Amino acid sequence: MTFPREQTCCGQMHYxxxxxxxxxxxxxxxxxxxxxxxxxCVPSASCVAMMREHYELIxxxxxxxxxxxxxxxxxxxxxxxSELLTERLKAEDVGASFAHSVTYHPSCHSLRMLNIREGPLxxxxxxxxxxxxxxxEKEQCCGFGGTxxxxxxxxxAAMLEAKEACVINTGAEVxxxxxxxxxxxxYGGLHRAGSAVRTMHIAEILASTEGxx
Length: 213
Prior knowledge:
The mean pLDDT is 95. The two termini are 26 Å apart. 50% of the residues lie in helices and 12% in strands. By secondary structure, the chain is an alpha/beta fold. The chain is globular, with a radius of gyration of 18 Å. Helix 5 (81-88) crosses helix 7. The protein has two domains: 12-86, no CATH class; 97-210, Rossmann fold, CATH 3.40.50.
């Protein structure tokens, strides 16, 4: 396994904010950095959604046949973290131990754009000592949405308030998701509300041996 330190943003932040021209060099760099990788694991569903939904479109808009060919060659090798485990490696039990109650928030990009549904739950259910608690209204957005949280702060705050109430009502010690952006948003709300609930990326839980042999 390698981690290319020269890698940068996938371009999603620029593209989603309307800076399409500025996103193109980042797309080219990503393709260049991972051109020879057998498999690309991405711990962010929103980044994978950007690649699958927009990289081909960007190459076509630039009328760049070489970039388009590179994108077509790259995309079948790009996997969101939990997707890599359950779909590519056919793994559910990774030997993790985590003796805490956990609730799972399915982020908008993972649910609506990548159609990731049962995989993360199967992974969490296989963790020794973990008590998985269902999140009410789980398919509701947390209100982050990148710059949406800045440009529409009042609406974002109202959505977050509803989400944090659902998390607290589960009684879980930890809230997890496939996107750190959602976890950052949710943690901010929980922290300001004085809640002791922690947020953790699912990869952190699956890497845990807490409470294990």
